Amino acid sequence: MATGNAAATPRDNWGSKLGFVMAAAGSAVGLGNIWKFPYTAGENGGGAFVLIYLAFVIVIGFSVMLTEFAIGRHTSRAAVGSFKTTDRRWSFVGIIGVLSGLLIMGFYPVVGGWALAYIPKVATGLLDNPQDIGESFGGFISNPTQPLLWMAAYFILNIVIVSKGISGGIEKAGKILMPLLFLILVVVAVKGLSLPGASAGLEFLFKPDFSKVDSHVVLAALGQAFFSLSLGMGCMITYGSYLKKKENLVQTTGMVVGMDTAVALLAGIAMFPAMFAFNMEPAAGPGLVFVVVPQLFAEMGHIGLLFALMFFIGLTVAALTSSVSLLEVVVSYLIDEKGMKRVNAVLSASAVMAVMCIFASLSLGGIGPKLFDTGVFDIFDLLTDKVFLAVGGMLICIFAGWRLNRVDLEKEITNNGKIAFPLFGLWYNLVKYVIPVAVAVVACAGIISGFESGKGAIMVLAIAIIGCSALISKKL
Ligand code: PHE
Fold first, then answer.
1. Containing domain of residue 156, as a range?
2. DSSP-assigned letter for residue 399
C-alpha cells in the first residue's frame, strides 16, 4: 500500500492496477477468511448462515466497498480526513473507524501469533501425533506466557512493516504467498473431500437448514461479511484515496470481493468435510483451523509436512497483510490529524494495541477481567464484528447517500462518464435507503437476541461508545 502523509497532495498512486487489487485483497483476505469464517459458519449452523453471508457479501459488501473506494478517491484523504474535508460534523464516522481498528488490533495479533507459532511447531513434529493436536492447541493458547511471546513477535513484524511504509517487501511477499496459500487450500480441500464420510461436511456447509436461523445468526453473517471484506472502518477509503482516476472502481471492487469470498468458501470446503470425516464437532470454535488442518496434513505423509509449513507461512503472511492495513488506519489518523511522525505514531498505537492483546491472550486461559461473564478476547471480537463495523458501514452509506452529491458520485464511479455502470441507480438506492435500514434492523434484532446469551449488554456498551465518540469527535 502506498503510504505517507495522506493529507499531502499530490498523492502517491498505485503503481499498477494489479498492485492495487492485490493490496486491497491483501487487506481483505486474512484470518477473517481462513480462521474466522469456518468456525463462525460452524457455530451458526452451517448452510443457512453461509447463504445469508453470501447474500450480504453480494448486496451489501459489494455496495459498501464501492462506496468506500469512491469516497476515498473522491476526497483523496484517509479515513478521518475524507469525512472531515467534506463536513466536519461527519468526522466521527472516521473516528469510529479508527476505534474499530484499535479494537480489532486488540485481538487479531493474538491469532496472528498462533499462526506464526505453528510454523516451528509443525517443523518440530506437531504432525507426528495427530490425535494430540487438539489438546496441544488448547494447552498452547491457554498457557499464560507462550502465546504472548508469539504475539509479541508477530506484533514486531507489523511495527517494522508499517514504520517503513507498507509498499515494500510485504506487498511482494503477499503477491507470491497469497496465490500459494490458495493452491494449498485447494490441495487441503481435495484431500478432505477424499476422506470417507466427507460428503456430510459439504452438506452441512451448503445445504441450508433455515430452522437454525435466528436474528443472532443473521447478525453474525452480516458482521462476518464486513469483517472479511475489511469494510465499515475506513480501511478501503484509505486504499481508494491512492487509486488512480482512470481505474475502474466497479471492476476493482468485483475482483476484491470475488477473491475474498472464494478464499472463505475454499477454507470452508477444506475444513468441514474433514471434520465430519474425523467425527469432530462443527461448532469446535476458534481452534478449528489450528486443529483440523494439521490433522489433514498429518494424513498426507512427508509431503504433508511441507504443505503444512507452507500453509502456516502463507496464513501468517495473509494475516500480516490484513493487520498492517488495520494498524495503518490508526497510524495515518495520528499522522494526518495529530501531526505525529510516522515512527512515533506506529510505536504509540502499537503500545496501546499490544497491551490490549496481552489481556485478550490471557483471557483465553481464564485470566483477567470479565464483563458479563465474557473475557477480553471475546469482548473485542464481539464489539467489532457485531457492532462497530456494521454501524460504521451504515454511517458510511448514509454519508454517501445523504451528504454527498449524487452527480459527484456518478462522475467518480463512471470516471466522468467514461465507464458504463448501468446499475448505478440500483447501487445508489441501495446505499441511500436499503443498506442503512437493513443494517439497522439486523443490528437491533441481533442486539436484542444477544441479551438471551448475556452478550446484549456488551453490544449496548458498543453503541454507547459510538455515541460518545460522535459527541467528542468535534474536539479531536
Ligand atoms: N479483512 C481482514 C481479514 O479477513 C480483517 C480486517 C478487518 C482488516 C477490517 C482490515 C479491516 O482478516
1. 2-473
2. I
User: Using one digit for the tens of pLDDT, what is the confidence trace for 436-475?
Assistant: 999 999 988 888 877 777 788 888 888 888 888 878 776 6
At position 86, the amino acid (one-letter code) is T
Rounded-to-integer distance, Cα 274 and Cα 295, Å: 9
Mind listing the pLDDT tens digit for each residue in 435-445? 999 999 998 88
Closest CA relative to residue 181, chosen from 67, 69, 310, 82: 310
| Predicted TM-score (pTM) of this structure | 0.93
Q: What is the total count of domains within the chain? A: 1
Q: Measured from the CB, is residue 44 less than 6 Å from ligand 1?
A: no
- Reported confidence tier of residue 370, pLDDT bands at 50, 70, 90: confident
The CB-based long-range contact list for 183-186 (8 Å cut-off, 24+ gap) reads: 184/307, 184/310, 184/311, 184/314, 185/34, 185/263, 185/266, 185/267, 185/270, 185/311, 186/266
The CA-CA-CA angle for residues 249, 255, 260, to 5°, reads 125
Which residue has its alpha carbon closest to ligand 1 atom 9? Answer: 230
Pocket test for ligand 1, best of 98, 322, 385 (most atoms within 8 A of CB): 322
To test the ligand 1 pocket, which listed residue (227, 259, 384) has its Cβ within 8 A of the most ligand atoms? 227
329 lines ligand 1 (CB under 6 A): no
Nearest Cα residue to atom 6 of ligand 1 = 230
CATH code for the domain of 305: 1.20.1740
Task: Report which of 343, 99, 49 is spatially closest to residue 207, judged by C-alpha positions.
Answer: 49
Check pocket membership of 323 for ligand 1, CB cut-off 6 A: no
